Every structure is written in C-alpha cells, then in structure tokens.
C-alpha cells in the first residue's frame, strides 16, 4: 500500500518536474518519504524509474482503450490527435517525450531501455486493429506513416503551441488515408 501511494506521489511529481530534474533526495522530500525508503521499496533508483515508466505507460494504454472502438484508420487517427492535442495532456506528453528520447539513447538494459520501442508497438497495434488487412506491407507502411505524422505533429505542438497550423497538417494527412 505504501509503495503504491509513494509511486503515485512520485509520478505526480515527475509529471510536474520531468525526468531531468529527478534526484532521490528532493523527490523523497516532495513525496513525504526518504531516499532510503524509496530505495528499499523500489530496489534502486533504476527500479523507481522503471516503476514510474510503467505507471506512465499505464496512462498511455488507457488512452489506447479510450480512442479505439469500431472505426476506420482515419477516424482513429483523428481521435488520437484530438487526445494528443488537448491542453490537459501536455504534462503527460512532455514526460512521454522525455522518456521516449532517453529510451532511444539507452539501447542497453538501463531503466529506459525498450520504452520507445514498446510505445511504437502499442500504438501500431491500436492502428492495426482499424485496418481491413493489417498484415500487408502496405498496411504496415500506412500505420508507420500515420504514427510518424502524429509524433511529428505532437513535437511541433509542444515546441510552438501553434495548434491551428498543426491541426491543419494532421487533418490534411488524415484526409488522404
């Protein structure tokens, strides 16, 4: 119970402050604990990072459930974009971006390893569920392009805040699906 409470408090802290500033001492103080307790409960700082990444991924998987449903690929792409572009999700998406970037730079077995690849696999599976013949090379390429457009649009939106421009770009791509 205490471990889950501390995990949720640490997750809220990381959502607000990001991964870059995560140090055990300030994090422990912010969540009403001590570094020793966090290390005991999570095994190591890497263990805590892995638990926080899993917690973040749970939020991502909840989105997959929310945007799914019986629809074609373009409709699901529009639902995903609407969720990604919503202002109330910016903290989670900044956290995701930071974790994704660290994962790409950590091909080994560190706490970030595999996070980016698993993210791509999760989203690809969602999109494949909305294609008539998902096993074809053409369908896989269509999903990869849609994911690339959504990720690029998200990066632009996070960098510029120019939602009308980015919405128009995503809509243009979705119209061609």
UniProtKB/TrEMBL annotation:
Query: Could you tell me which species this protein originates from?
Result: Actinomycetospora chlora
Keywords for the protein's UniProt record, in alphabetical order = DNA-binding
Q: Which SUPFAM superfamilies match?
A: Homeodomain-like
Matches recorded under Pfam families:
TetR_N
Question: Which positions fall inside the HTH tetR-type domain?
Answer: 1-60
Q: Which Gene3D superfamilies match?
A: Tetracycline Repressor, domain 2
What InterPro entries does the record tag this protein with? Answer: Homeodomain-like_sf (IPR009057), HTH_TetR (IPR001647)
Q: What is the name attached to this protein's record?
A: TetR family transcriptional regulator
Q: Give the DNA-binding residue ranges.
A: 23-42
- Decide whether keyword DNA-binding is in the record: yes
